[in-house]
Specification:
Subcellular location: Nucleus
Protein name: Myc-type, basic helix-loop-helix (BHLH) domain-containing protein
CATH architecture of the largest domain: 2-Layer Sandwich
Number of domains: 2
Pfam family, one: HLH
Distance between the termini: 65 Å
Number of helices: 4
Shape: elongated
Keywords: Nucleus, Transcription, Transcription regulation
Strand content: 25-35%
Radius of gyration: 22 Å
Structural class: alpha+beta
GO cellular component, one term: nucleus
CATH class of the largest domain: Alpha Beta
């Protein structure tokens, strides 16, 4: 009787370990989709690429903070804070979230996978004076994309997060 319970316990342990490995593999795949130029798909390479990318982003943030220290960006903001954000729903009920910090802009939204909304939003951002730094599109279902866009404001950019969000929702 002891051997039977050990066998069941061993099978449960093997099953749990398999589930853990599958979940870990899925998380590494998700992580690799966030990286701009993954070199390889093995776990060690994904971790190394992620660490390098985070360091690169930290360096870029520091550069942006240093370059925006001397500019007069308070007229761009609704408040005296260095950071501001706004969120609006589109006519179809989808959220567009805009966050601004210094000269950096983060736009987050979702759209249908087969629509031209993604391209329209990027085009509008360029038209109003934002320089696209990076984009990330993650497929959530077979019909939905979650989009993150990081951009940099030109010196003469003067929209608030709310204004930018309203502007972009018109093309979404």
């Amino acid at each position: 009787m002891g051997k039977v319970s050990n066998t069941v316990h061993d099978q449960d342990h093997v099953s749990d370990e398999r589930d853990r490995r599958e979940k870990l593999a899925q998380q590494f795949i998700s992580l690799s989709t966030l990286l701009p130029n993954p070199t390889k798909t093995d776990m060690a390479s994904v971790l190394e690429d992620a660490c390098n990318y985070i360091k690169e982003l930290e360096s870029h943030v520091k550069e942006l903070e240093e370059s925006s220290a001397g500019c007069n960006s308070k007229d761009v903001r609704e408040s005296n804070d260095d950071e501001a954000s706004s969120s609006h729903k589109t006519k179809r009920g989808e959220d567009i979230e805009v966050q601004m910090s210094g000269k950096s802009v983060l736009v987050q939204f979702q759209c249908k996978r087969d629509s031209s909304s993604y391209v329209n939003v990027l085009g509008e951002m360029l038209n109003i004076g934002l320089s696209i730094i990076s984009t990330n599109a993650v497929s959530f279902t077979s019909t939905t994309l979650f989009i993150n866009v990081v951009a940099e404001m030109a010196d003469d950019f003067c929209m608030t997060p709310a204004d930018l969000s309203k502007n972009l929702q018109q093309v979404l």
